[in-house]
Amino acid sequence: MSSRTSPICQPITIRRAVARDAKRLTRLVRGSGAYEGKYASAVAGYRVGPDYIEAHRVFVAVDADEHGGRVLGFYSLVLAPPELDLLFVADEAQGRGIGRLLVAHMQSEARAAGLDRLKVVSHLPAEDFYHRVGAVRIGTALANPPAVPWDRPEFEFRIPSE
């Protein structure tokens, strides 16, 4: 069974990101296979810095290996206006349910913060993922050249109260 489709075998922990995670998160964004080819310009100079981590609710999914945990993915929740700003899963960890775990965690954090909905502007290759995890398409974010020269689907997560 390939690692792309294998279930989660090791325990996964989701924890708050700290400043020392910044370089690993930046590498994850810039190295994402979803941003190859025509999409590469969108992340070429992208940086997830310690200042970003401090200003937003950034959480990382790590496996519990002997080296203190490998970053498998992360997300960033912005409270005002309510938005899922970033969500990435390492290429080698995709297909193992980590994205779903991150979305469930994000919804829990949003609920705890008193949010009843939040939006996400999706990268085109991630559109099906957002449909599968319950986001509802609400529109289109128009291109913003030169950084993002294509239109992107805009979704909303509705956060039910418990």
Low-pLDDT regions: 1-8
Residues in β-strands, percent: 25-35%
Work out the number of β strands: 7
Q: What gap, in angstroms, lies between the N and C termini?
A: 37 Å
Tell me the domain tally.
1
Count of helical segments? Answer: 4
CATH class: Alpha Beta
Order of helices and strands: EHHEEEHEHEE
Question: What class would the helix/strand composition place it in?
Answer: alpha+beta
What is the topology?
Elements: E1 12-16, H1 22-30, H2 50-55, E2 57-63, E3 71-78, E4 83-89, H3 98-112, E5 117-121, H4 127-132, E6 136-141, E7 152-158
Antiparallel strand pairs: 1-2, 2-3, 3-4, 5-7, 6-7
Characterization of this structure:
With 162 residues, the protein is of the alpha+beta class. The chain has one domain: Gcn5-related N-acetyltransferase (GNAT) (Aminopeptidase, 3-Layer(aba) Sandwich), CATH 3.40.630.30. Helix content is 22%, strand content 28%. The chain has 4 helices and 7 strands; from the N terminus they run E-H-H-E-E-E-H-E-H-E-E. The chain has helices at residues 22-30, 50-55, 98-112, 127-132; strands spanning 12-16, 57-63, 71-78, 83-89, 117-121, 136-141, 152-158. It has a 4-stranded antiparallel sheet, sandwiched between helices. The chain has a 3-stranded antiparallel sheet with strand order 5-7-6. The longest helix is centred in the middle third of the chain and has 15 residues, at 98-112. It is globular, with a radius of gyration of 15 Å. The model is unreliable at 1-8 (pLDDT under 50).
